[in-house]
Specification:
The complex is a heterodimer of chains A (about 575) and B (about 450). By secondary structure, chain A is of the alpha+beta class. Chain A folds into four domains: about 5-70, Elongation Factor Tu (Ef-tu), domain 3, CATH 2.40.30; about 110-185, RNA polymerase II/Efflux pump adaptor protein, barrel-sandwich hybrid domain (OB fold (Dihydrolipoamide Acetyltransferase, E2P)), CATH 2.40.50.100; about 225-430, P-loop containing nucleotide triphosphate hydrolases (Rossmann fold, 3-Layer(aba) Sandwich); about 445-580, Bovine Mitochondrial F1-ATPase, ATP Synthase Beta Chain, Chain D, domain3. Chain A is about 35% helix and about 25% strand. In chain A, strands 8, 18, 19, 20, 21, 22, 23, 24, 25 and 26 form a ten-stranded mixed beta sheet that branches. In chain A, strands 1-2-5-4-3-6 form a six-stranded antiparallel beta barrel. In chain A, strand 1 (about 5-10) and strand 2 (about 10-15) form a beta hairpin. In chain A, helix 7 (about 355-365) runs parallel beside helix 8 (about 395-405), helix 13 packs antiparallel against helix 14 and helix 14 runs antiparallel to helix 15. By secondary structure, chain B is an alpha/beta fold. Chain B is about 30% helix and about 25% strand. Chain B contains twelve helices and 22 strands. In chain B, strand 16 (about 180-185), helix 3 and strand 17 (about 210-215) form a beta-alpha-beta unit. Chain B is elongated. Classes of the chains: A alpha+beta (about 575), B alpha/beta (about 450). Chains A and B meet through strand 1, helix 1, helix 4, helix 6 and helix 11 of A and strand 5, strand 11, helix 6, helix 7 and helix 9 of B. Strand 1 (about 5-10) of chain A pairs antiparallel with strand 5 of chain B, so a sheet runs across the interface.
């Protein structure tokens, strides 16, 4: 006999009479078979968090067991798709039920009918371990989907499908290990709350190049690293994550919109298919997977959405790809934890959040990393998490726990946003713990003096803040000329370099080469002026208007067209240097 | 099969606890009748084998434990929808309050709606001209957006909302159905009269559906009212193809009611006594704005809230700001200077602006001009703070220009008459004219070609 509902409170349902309930097993609740997960067992009673709207459930309604934990379906067809927090395909649901998401809809995550062109890589007689390569499928124009032996399985290849078109449920190989035979399909499953196994973690040593100047130059994140983006509303968290999703040099982007606006997902869905990857020229959608559990969708599925996202990210990592996962916003996920914890009547920690908030946050970020794979290859998952602190004050628990678990902090500043300085990343408070690890890469890929120039310009920005305090007291005119130069250079850095227009076709992405050239121009201009001032020249008699306009113009100029402007800038700087000589 | 239960065990101001109701559904509508025959509506908040918790939408005064009767309706909260609602005034539960007949329709909708599939949304991108410069140029509103007004006690948010409703037009306007859904949540009868008179004077009442819960009406109805209003709006927008602007005022009263019921249920509060699920709850209202693929209508929401002690970090404006697509903030200082509308430009924001402006919608120079005005006004305000410390005499020439710019920007650009309807071209040209106070080389946010084409500088 199946179980029966004996209580309903919001998304939490209590049932009794289940035959063999296990923690985190999936159950189907009520006549509509709403999907729920067992989160607590108490004698005969099972407490279930339900991933769909519970209105209308009655005492006595049935509860059926699935015997399986919450899992994702993995296989070709993930790329370009949009799922909800428990991996139901929103595009297929739209076709089936229209505008609004009805309850109890059962649509498999991956298309069972579609045929994929499979190329075998292994031969009969090969011995394959976990993560050994069976074959591959060209999933999109950008990505080869490698079909690997699922974790935990190994054996000798007894049968393998010939090159041809197969559905994800067709058998493509048979492995035999100690007399046990295992049929392998392209479709596999993985429980979302458990990290996929790896051989070990590696030290991150390459940046995730984002094309965002303030990030790449001053606060870079490594491939396999973690970054937190806390900021009050209107400071541009989502725009930054969207920009990185568009331009970062990751192979795969998993974008998890959790508890946020529906229109933001629409934004991605409408713009990404039209945008081209700056490196390959292929549509960005071909490398993107979206998980959308917007703020009006059931709160329990919001809790699950980050795990669904990271499990999918790990799956592509295991094929040897660099995956970047954006979670917007982890605060909404934390609030989902809080809401469910409250309904379970657990004793709260800070601000009503459960006592295990910190553990959950650090466990999530720990699933990032550059890793040695089971098959000896490498892959990485980079996690970038937006945080929405209440009142914009990052002393609250979600921000603080996130900062402890992450290594890069992009501090969004509402006063910068108010004056429309975007991205509104405060250069005085932000930090990256990867800067030193990545210096070698920048020296080799941008220029040997990258670190020196970067440090000098960062120093100028910090000096500016100090000098501005003095200006508040004594006025600009009484400053020494060297301080006036600091202010002047800092202004160029802020306006021509740190600011970047996400809505301008060219300015939205700056290659590393372009960043280096811009930095170098600002640096050289500053050096030339410094020498003039040492000779007793007054700032007001140094005319740098055209050079500054040139540097600004670089922002809006394509890499290949920069030559003319750079020549002009260099000529101007050379003239200044001549004057000083 | 109507069963009457007389198993009430406990009654509070807004909750009724009953035993032994075995077949109550979560969220089911219940009627609660007292000994003297007075009936109020209620809704099941939690069920268990021992006790059923019912939220009462009305006054429990005079009810007692022994004689109060409960009757289950068999369904969740639904309202009949029809185009006959247009031109009518209802209360917080959807009952007529204008003396007219009840709405009858076979089409009954659950007031909680269902979440819009994110995949079904289409991108809001049609510019709505409000005729107000500080909105049209700097914080443009688009169809399907949710853009709240953050105000404070005693500030003219009602006038601003009324002006927007009077003037709102779509550029290049195809004549399409355009309706107003107005939800007054716990507002004073004077505010209610202001809006109703304004609607009558401008003729807007004929295309408006009005829901009113006055300050003196039961507070629990405030939790129902926005959901009923949006159910009506969804019907008009997505079934009847109309463009609907929804005004909900005052969201602060809604949040207070939410806190009241949460406290009554002994829930663990998050900040300042508001429940931890307030974000989700508010989102279930605001996310009902939008445009849908393949449907011609749209829902644009302009909720109004008063920030307690003008504090934008208070949980109510804070959570609303995280859900909505920007905010129009009103400023007390500007109000004292007699600037109307007293829109606080630096704090205001429209997130969907960029997709609703530009060559095809408004004009090619719009974005750059707007950014430059923002930056220049921020700089002007910075100079003002400096003047307070070091005096105007110590300013350099450039700073003095910014000071003048900030004054003129407030006096001529932000400021306009309650009856003044500026079209977008007038607004943009005015912006260029005031920028002309500053030096041309300071225009770092504007593309050089637009500077040449629209700038008011004499060629240097």
């Amino acid at each position: 006999m199946e179980g029966r509902i004996i209580g309903v409170s919001g998304s939490v349902v209590t049932a009794s009479g289940l035959k063999s309930p296990k923690m985190n097993d999936i159950v189907l609740v009520g006549d509509d078979k709403l999907i729920g997960e067992i989160v607590k067992l108490d004698g005969d009673k099972a407490i279930i968090q339900v991933y769909e709207e519970t209105a209308g459930l009655r005492l006595g309604d049935g509860v059926a067991e699935s015997g399986e934990p919450l899992s994702v379906e993995l296989g070709p067809g993930l790329l370009g798709a949009i799922f909800d927090g428990i991996q139901r395909p929103l595009d297929l649901i739209f076709r089936r039920t229209g505008t609004f998401i009805g309850r109890g809809i059962k649509v498999p995550a991956l298309d069972r009918e579609k045929r994929w062109h499979f190329k075998p890589k292994a031969k009969v007689g090969d011995r394959l371990d976990s993560a050994g390569e069976i074959g591959e499928v060209k999933e999109t124009s950008l990505i080869k989907h490698r079909i690997l032996v699922p974790p935990g399985l190994k054996g000798e290849v007894k049968k393998i499908a010939e090159e041809g078109d197969y559905t994800i449920e067709d058998a493509i190989a048979v492995l035999e290990d100690g007399g046990r035979r295992e049929t392998i399909k392209m479709l596999s499953k993985w429980p979302v709350r458990i990290p996929r196994p790896i051989a070990g973690k590696l030290e991150p040593d390459m940046p995730l190049v984002t094309g965002q100047r303030v990030i790449d130059t001053f606060f870079p994140v490594a491939k396999g690293g973690t970054a937190a983006v806390p900021g009050g509303f209107g400071t541009g968290k989502t725009v930054i994550l969207h920009e990185i999703a568009k331009w970062a040099d990751a192979d795969i982007i998993v974008y998890c919109g959790t508890g946020e606006r529906g229109n933001e997902m629409t934004e991605i869905l409408t713009t990404f298919p039209e945008l081209k990857d700056p490196r390959s020229g292929k549509p960005l959608m071909d490398r993107t997977i979206m998980i959308a559990n917007t703020s009006n969708m059931p709160v329990a599925a919001r809790e699950a959405s980050v795990y669904t996202s990271v499990a999918i990210a790990e799956y592509y990592r295991d094929m040897g790809y660099d995956v970047a996962l954006m979670a917007d916003s982890t605060s909404r996920w934390a609030e989902a934890l809080r809401e469910i914890s409250g309904r379970l009547e657990e004793m709260p920690g800070e601000e009503g959040y459960p006592a295990y908030l910190g553990r959950k946050i650090s466990e999530f970020y720990e699933r990032a990393g550059k890793v040695k794979l089971l098959n000896g290859g490498t892959g990485s998952v980079t996690i970038l998490g937006a945080v929405s602190p209440s009142g914009g004050d990052i002393s609250e628990p979600v921000s603080q726990n996130t900062l402890r678990a992450t290594r890069v902090f992009w501090a969004l500043d509402s006063s910068l946003a108010d004056s429309r300085h975007f991205p509104a990343i405060n250069w005085l408070n932000s930090y990256s713990l990867y800067t030193e690890q990545l210096e070698d890469w920048y020296a080799g890929n941008a220029g040997k003096d990258w670190a020196a120039i970067r440090n000098k310009l960062m120093d100028t920005l910090q000096r500016e803040a100090e000098i501005n305090e003095i200006v508040q007291l004594v006025g600009y005119d009484s400053l020494p000329e060297s301080d006036k130069l600091v202010l002047d250079t800092a202004k160029i850095i802020r306006e021509s370099y740190l600011q970047q227009n996400a809505f301008d076709e060219i300015d939205t992405f700056s290659s590393t080469a372009k960043q280096y050239k811009m930095l170098k121009a600002i640096y050289n201009l500053n050096k030339a002026e410094e020498r003039l001032i040492e000779k007793g020249t007054k700032m007001e008699s140094i005319d740098t208007k055209e050079i500054k306009q040139g540097i600004m113009a670089l922002r809006y100029t394509k890499d290949e067209d920069m030559g003319g402007i750079l020549n002009k800038i260099n000529k101007g700087i050379a003239e200044l240097a001549d004057r000083a000589a | 099969m109507e069963i009457e239960y007389r198993s009430v065990k406990r009654i509070t101001n807004m909750l009724v606890f009953a035993e032994g109701i075995k077949d109550a559904a979560y969220g089911e509508r219940v009627s609660i009748t007292s000994a003297d025959g007075k009936t109020i509506d209620g809704q099941v908040l939690a069920t268990s084998e021992d006790i059923t918790v019912i939220q009462a939408f009305g006054n429990t005064t005079g009810m007692n434990v022994d004689e109060t009767k409960l009757r289950l309706s068999g369904t969740t909260f639904k309202i009949p929808v029809s185009e006959k609602m247009i031109g009518r005034i209802f209360d917080g539960l959807g009952r007529p309050r204008d003396g007219g007949v009840e709405i009858f329709s076979d089409d009954k909708r659950d007031i909680n709606g269902s979440p819009i599939n994110p995949y079904a949304r289409s991108r809001p991108s049609e510019f709505i001209q409000t005729g107000i410069s500080a909105i049209d140029c700097l914080n443009s509103l688009v169809r399907g957006q949710k853009l709240p007004i953050f105000s404070g006690s005693g500030l003219p948010h009602n006038r601003l909302a009324a002006q927007i409703l009077r003037q709102a037009t779509l550029l290049g306007g195809k004549t399409q159905k355009f309706y107003i859904v107005f939800g007054g949540i716990g507002i004073s009868s004077e505010d209610a009269n202001f809006f109703i008179n304004e609607f009558k004077d401008s003729g807007a009442l004929e295309r408006a559906v009005v829901f009113m819960n006055l300050a003196s009406d039961p507070s629990m109805e405030r939790l129902i009212l926005p959901r009923i209003a949006l159910t009506a709006a969804e019907y008009l927008a997505f079934d009847k193809g109309a463009h609907v602007i929804v005004i909900l005022t005052d969201i602060t009263n809604y949040a207070e009611a939410l806190r009241e019921i949460s406290a009554a249920r002994d829930e663990i509060p998050a900040r300042r006594g508001y429940p931890g699920y307030m974000y989700t709850d508010l989102a279930s209202i605001f996310e009902r704005a939008g445009k849908i693929k393949g449907k011609s209508g749209s829902i644009t929401q302009i909720p109004i809230l008063t920030m307690p002690s003008d504090d934008i970090t208070h949980p109510i404006p804070d959570l609303v700001g995280y859900i909505t697509e920007g905010q129009i903030v009103l400023n007390r200082g500007l109000n004292k200077k007699n600037i109307y509308p007293n829109i606080d430009v630096p704090l205001s924001l429209s997130r969907l602006m960029d997709q609703g402006i530009g060559a095809e919608q408004t004009r090619e120079d719009h974005k750059g001009l707007s950014d430059q005005l923002y930056a220049a006004y921020a700089k002007g305000n910075e100079v003002r703070r400096m003047v307070e410390i070091i005096g105007e005499g110590a300013l350099n020439e450039s700073d003095k220009l910014y000071l003048r710019f900030a004054d003129e920007f407030e006096r001529r650009f932000i400021n306009q008459d309650f009856m003044e309807n500026r079209d977008i071209k007038t607004t943009l040209d005015l912006g260029w004219e005031i920028l002309g106070i500053l030096k041309k080389e300071d225009m770092t946010r504007i593309k050089p070609e637009f500077l040449e084409r629209y700038g008011k500088w004499k060629s240097q």
